[in-house]
Design brief:
CATH class: Mainly Alpha
Structural class: mainly alpha
CATH superfamily: MFS general substrate transporter like domains
Shape: globular
CATH topology: Growth Hormone, Chain: A
Distance between the termini: 25 Å
Strand content: under 5%
Helix content: over 70%
Number of helices: 14
Order of helices and strands: HHHHHHHHHHHHHH
Radius of gyration: 21 Å
CATH architecture: Up-down Bundle
Number of domains: 1
Mean pLDDT: 83
Low-confidence stretches: none
Largest sheet: none
Length: 424
Amino acid sequence: MPVVRDLRVLLRLTNFRRLLAVRLLSQSADGVYQVALATYVVFSPEKEASPGAIAAAMAVLLLPYSLIGPFAGVLLDRWPRRQIFLHGNLLRAVLACCTAVLMLAPVPEWLFYVSALCVTAVNRFVLAGLSAALPRVVDEERLVMANSLSPTAGTLAATAGGGLAFAVRIGASDSDSDVIVVLLGATLYLCAALASLRMGRELLGPDPDLVQPHLMAALASTARGLVSGLRHLAERRTAARALAAMTMLRFCYGALTVMVLMLCRYTWSDTESEGLKLLGLAVALSGAGFLTAAVVTPWAVGRLGQYGWMAALAGVATLLEPALALTFAPVPILIAAFALGLVTQGAKISTDTVVQTSIDDEFRGRVFSLYDMLFNVAFVGAAGVTAWMLPPDGRSVPLVVLLAALYGLVAAALLRWHRTGGSP
């Protein structure tokens, strides 16, 4: 099969394998840590989680960094990316240990959220760097395939880490399960930091003449760099359109995520462990959708183009999302988790490729930080809308209909851009 042959070629590239190893370890740790946070906030017996509480937690964890994310991107274009992976993962290992301590200590809850916020902020920084560094280890001819394998493999690693966290959480005693899961995540962050040392300091860019080693010099140029990055993106309409469509798809996926959380917590189960098992199954099926997207996207893009493939995915979601979700039953919604995982990841692979091929190397870091900012804002916005529309049992016909309409609007816009020659 062509896909298998291309994957074999990519995996023969030593530096690609090493960068992929950092991504897999880092994102598996993300999966472990995020499940620990979700179960601590939503499934702890002493907490009565509501859509509003979930939205507030997402806002605390994501929104502050979303507002400063582009400024981090300017630094990302000036510091050696290998060093970001090394020091960023070491910092996250330490911060995750702090989170574990705060879970045990009788401290105000806001301290826990501050610790989690710091881990999440560094996480966005590392992920943007991984995407910006990928063209440095793969030639442009194989970049679509690399974007199918690398980010999707990372997402699958996060899913696997989440599954491991669920297993540990269910198997451990109630008193220490969340702490054990967080410490597992800290260990994986440490492994990711060590794995980055297998690559040369200057390998992943940016070019040495663009690097500003002094922190104050880099910070002083942040505002100017942000403006130039936005101007560069505005001149690349292909990338800007792909980012806009992906942001809306992320919004829909975030809203459905909150809905599934509430259904697992209050509607489909009578016990905490049963709800966790159902949520874990939903996460696994969504991960299977990500894997399927990695296999089919290169083939589909070759026949439909980037915008054409994204339009087809959004069109499928327009039909499937209401047909399955309006039942509010476990089996149809678990099927939807697979289908919408495929839709979201397939669109993300195309968007990553469009941005990487349309944006000049010296601007990639800040543009990918903007990309992450849009991701976070979309997810927080989705949680806020869901908190307003969703009852405690997780069943809301208006929400499902609204999301179907948004999928349809995205599909129509992408199809129009594709037909007018805007598809790359």
